[in-house]
Design the sequence.
């Protein structure tokens, strides 16, 4: 099994900023962690702290969020899953529906990187490396995602250009970076590249132009694909692949 020794093992022997600790634990991004701290939702050794810049020693301090103890994982693990249909991209579902975690023999606090709605398929990274996960999803790093999209009717060229220039969904501008017709598809099948990753973004963009998305498959996340994996299958990322992801989002 391809796992990496905890990247933060050095940090765990010394104190460091509380927001960084929470980010590495996968609780939230550093900015969102600051908000949790200001709101008084973070406790150190049983006492709420609200001061930004507070430092902690994970070897000595007991840190909790909303009363739930959080800690760094013993090892960071990184996998890619070829997500099948009828599967929820979340850690657990209150309605008892199948989630991506039901497909993986992983234990502990793991997070899907990026969203795929229930009936979308394809490349999904999961990890317990919270800092990497948050950066991969943050818009400022512009991580490229590529999709295969099949529509209910041929995409007109004027609408393809609208998607490139940008349209509004949910009252906010949205655009694709690239969109191309797939050969011999009679223009009902297109390849789409995004830098954003908003909820149901591709479906909403096509719906705004009066197209229904019949099938949506993420063929690549960053430089990673599901080549060799059947639906529902997964594998561990190699050290080289993880290093590539960390370099992409400027994590040393």
Sequence:
């Amino acid at each position: 099994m391809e796992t990496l020794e905890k990247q933060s093992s050095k940090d765990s022997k010394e104190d460091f900023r509380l927001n960084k600790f929470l980010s590495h634990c996968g609780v939230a991004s550093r900015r969102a962690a600051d908000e949790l701290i200001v709101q008084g939702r973070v406790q150190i050794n049983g006492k709420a702290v609200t001061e930004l810049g507070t430092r902690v020693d994970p070897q000595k301090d007991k840190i909790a969020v909303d009363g739930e103890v959080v800690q760094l994982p013993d090892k960071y693990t990184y996998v890619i899953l070829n997500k099948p249909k009828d599967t929820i991209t979340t850690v657990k579902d209150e309605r008892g529906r199948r989630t991506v975690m039901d497909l993986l023999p992983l234990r502990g606090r793991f997070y899907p990187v990026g969203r795929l709605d229930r009936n979308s398929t394809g490349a999904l990274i999961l990890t317990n490396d919270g800092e990497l996960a948050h950066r991969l999803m943050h818009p400022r790093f512009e991580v490229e995602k590529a999709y295969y999209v099949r529509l209910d009717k041929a995409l007109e060229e004027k609408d393809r250009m609208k998607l490139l220039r940008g349209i509004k969904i949910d009252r906010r501008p949205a655009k694709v970076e690239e969109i191309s017709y797939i050969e011999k598809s009679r223009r009902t099948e297109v390849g789409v590249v995004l830098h954003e990753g908003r909820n149901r973004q591709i479906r909403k963009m096509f719906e705004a132009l009066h197209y229904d998305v019949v099938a949506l498959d993420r063929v690549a996340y960053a430089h990673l694909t599901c080549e060799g994996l059947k639906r529902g299958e997964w594998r561990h990322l190699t050290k080289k692949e993880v290093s590539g992801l960390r370099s992409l989002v400027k994590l040393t």
